[in-house]
Write a structure and sequence with these properties.
Elements: H1 2-17, E1 33-34, E2 39-45, E3 58-69, E4 75-85, E5 90-92, E6 95-103, E7 108-119, E8 130-140, E9 143-153
Antiparallel strand pairs: 1-9, 2-3, 3-7, 4-6, 4-8, 5-7, 8-9
Length: about 160
């Protein structure tokens, strides 16, 4: 077991030593934060588009955001905003979308959300781990609601080895 682990580490070190462009990507920030327990927030990246050097890594990425209303009265979602936290080889530009969707008490609603992103590593592209900060602006009757949620997207560990 130790020999296998040592061999894998040696292979990784050798591979990193033979490439001219080694990049390390790390995500930082609190990966699970909810400003309220009255709204349940879930997010999933639904597409992993390829990036091309001619586009300078700019790409639009699709997400599914699901909200569950835990308030005793309906809420109307007016705006959703996504942005990535920290830096790395994959990051989201701050993107907002307007909605006018009412969610009944105890019900859940899914939203399709396209966000502008930059993926600087063409090997990992839009599959790199990412911590996303999301804000939900809504109305509960005449009362404004502004809640913040952090989630990790693409929660995987990966090693990409390539050469130029």
């Amino acid at each position: 077991m130790v020999d296998r682990a040592s061999s894998e580490i040696a292979l990784l070190v050798a591979a990193c030593g033979t490439t001219r462009d080694a990049q390390i990507s790390a995500t930082t920030g609190d990966p699970v934060y909810d400003s309220t327990d009255k709204v349940r927030f879930e997010i999933e990246q639904t597409a992993h588009p390829m990036t091309f050097s001619g586009d300078k890594g700019k790409v639009d990425v699709s997400f599914r955001i699901t909200l569950t209303n835990r308030f005793p009265t309906p809420i109307t979602v007016k705006r959703l905003t996504l942005q990535s936290m920290g830096g790395g080889v994959f990051r989201l530009e701050t993107t907002s979308r307007k909605f006018d969707t009412t969610i009944a008490p105890g019900a859940k609603e899914s939203f399709k959300f396209w966000a502008s992103a930059i993926a600087t590593d063409q090997i990992t592209g839009t599959r790199a781990a990412l911590i996303v900060r999301s804000t939900v602006d809504a109305l509960q009757g005449d009362t404004r609601i502004h809640e913040v949620f952090n989630r990790r997207v693409n929660d995987q560990f990966g090693i990409a080895i390539g050469s130029n």
